[in-house]
Write a structure and sequence with these properties.
10 helices; elongated; 423 residues; 4-stranded antiparallel beta sheet; alpha+beta
Length: 423
């Protein structure tokens, strides 16, 4: 057999093996979709449990805010255990009664208003927790799919490197190449196998992270068809933060601050405490009624400092609301650009660029096997193919990650019903 024919047969085996590695083995098991992962994580997420507990806590706080002050039982004994006629209890005067604080200035309704805003804030917080969870699951899911695709690429490169080593060894054996070609191919094959091991560990970690997040083991396939779906996408969301959760949260905090000002003003009005009871005079064994009223004198604390504090906090939150709008608009505009750029890169890297790199590598392998190209040219073509495959995978990861972040930034705030619930 001639040297050229032997090398050509080896190169044909290399191409056939690489093509076989390119096509993944079909799985009969239904893939775990992103929606399935989000639903599973939502049912088991500690963050959602915490948000639910916050709603229950603020709802209980609203009940507490609407309660009236408790009456006080009072008991008093005078002129006891003294000297002379007051020795023992013979001259005692015993008084028993009740006192009832009367809130004035609308304190109770002001407290309820503050509590209502906190309940609304907690309910919005639950929607924020859900949106954050969906983003976290999406990023972790994309990370796992990306690790899976990187492992496939590493396996493809390892197969190509293995066959390349075989071709180089055959060419050296028949005297068509220098032994240095075999040494280079051996180093490339070793590095490719190490890359496969790294990719396997990365995939294992990514799947474990996804399993922890959704609360169940991820052993089956993921939705690779969704991962590859980029064509036809074009972001149409206007870069505006109106109606988003970010602004709703800032507005809810501002509403609480406004209610705090009202409460501070109500607290300036002194409360009145009414008391009534009966007094028994032991000496004459007579009984008399005792009535009283007490009003605090706002001499040292007249409530102005509290109003000033609440007003300053309101002004701070008004500024933060404006800042939140600017930050959200800027983040949304950047996210829209990131999605568009990632989509364009993904289409190119997974389409014309990848096809051209694969064809160049195929020609380089055949040409090297026939002695038309040297090993440096072959290695350059293989390196270009490897980099293009890596770029294609990175572009898909960037596209889906940017899409998830854009979805989180533009998450719409729920509409409030007259009862204060959100839907």
């Amino acid at each position: 057999m001639s040297r050229t024919l032997a090398a050509l047969l080896a190169a044909t085996v290399c191409v056939g093996t690489a093509a076989a590695q390119t096509t993944p083995v079909a799985s009969t098991e239904a893939p775990l979709t992103l929606d399935d992962a989000i639903a599973s994580a939502r049912a088991r997420s500690p963050g959602m449990d915490a948000a639910d507990a916050a709603i229950r806590a603020t709802t209980a706080g609203r009940t507490v805010a609407g309660l009236r002050p408790n009456p006080t039982f009072e008991g008093q004994a005078e002129n006891v255990v003294g000297t002379g006629p007051y020795k023992g209890l013979s001259g005692s005067e015993t008084t028993v009664g009740f006192s009832l604080p009367i809130e004035t200035g609308g304190k109770r309704s002001a407290r309820v208003a503050v509590a209502d805003t906190r309940v609304g804030r907690a309910k919005l917080g639950a929607f924020v927790a859900l949106a954050d969870l969906e983003l976290q699951v999406a990023e972790t899911y994309v990370e796992a799919l990306g690790a899976e695709r990187r492992l496939l690429v590493a396996q493809q490169q390892a197969a190509i490197a293995t066959e390349g080593l075989r071709v180089a060894r055959d060419r050296v054996t028949v005297g068509a190449a220098s032994p240095i070609d075999q040494q280079r191919a051996d180093v490339i094959s070793i590095n490719a196998n190490v890359a496969v091991e790294r990719a396997e560990r990365s995939l294992d970690v990514a799947r474990q992270n996804l399993s922890r997040l959704i609360g169940s083991a991820v052993n089956g396939p993921l939705d690779t068809a969704w991962f590859d779906r980029v064509a036809g996408f074009g972001p149409t969301i206007a870069p505006s933060s109106d109606g988003t959760l970010a602004l709703a949260i800032a507005a809810a905090d501002l509403a609480t601050a406004e209610a705090q000002i009202r409460l501070a003003r109500a607290n300036r009005v002194p409360d009145i405490t009414l008391s009534a009871g009966a007094r028994r005079l032991q000496a004459s064994r007579d009984t008399a009624a005792v009535v009283g009223v007490s009003i605090p004198i706002p001499l040292f604390n007249n409530g102005r400092a509290a109003i000033g504090q609440a007003t300053a906090e309101r002004d701070q939150l008004m500024a933060q609301l404006r800042l939140a709008r600017l930050d959200a608009d800027r983040a949304i505009a950047s996210a829209v650009a990131d999605v568009a750029n990632a989509a364009a890169t993904a289409r190119a890297a997974n389409g014309p660029a990848l096809a051209a790199a694969q064809e160049a590598a195929r020609i380089a392998r055949l040409g090297y096997g026939q002695g038309k190209f040297n090993q440096i040219e072959l290695l350059d073509a293989e390196r270009t193919l490897s980099e293009t495959r890596a770029t294609a995978t990175d572009a898909l990861i960037a596209f889906h990650t940017a899409t998830a972040r854009l979805r989180r930034l533009t998450s719409a705030a729920p509409s409030a019903t007259p009862s204060g619930d959100y839907r």
